[in-house]
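We close this part of the discussion by returning to an individual protein. The sequence in question and its structure tokens are set out directly beneath this paragraph:
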Amino acid sequence: MHDTKAGTPRLAAAKVGDDAGLLLAKLHTAGSALNNRALGDFGLRERSFWILTLACSGLEPTQRELATFLSLDPSQVVSLVDDLERRGLVERATGKQDRRARIIVSTAEGRRIHTKARALLEACEHEQLTALSEDEAGQLRTLLRKALWGGTD
């Protein structure tokens, strides 16, 4: 075998093996598959879980903010929120900060499901990043946030 190190595919030796976009895409693809398997027990997938997480955050996101933050088409967000609302996990409410805004908030059942699903996804992330120390995994998150939004917080 021509691996450059144990577990590294032979083709990773090509220049593209250092391409940040490819590396991020591969990490995301593997993580999504792992996460979606775990979330299946709750009838969720990653995108619906992200919306549920933001609905549980206390930040009062609007559908437009959800679409922008998650890089989804607004119609996708409407569909995801509709599904979560039908299941009694979120509801559309009037914003406390801006009474004209319609925000997405979790229900008690949504928070209950979110807590259980979050624990599973944390285990999935730990499994996916098992080759990294806790410090390295934290550095990875910090660097990704910095690359996306600048700053270091």
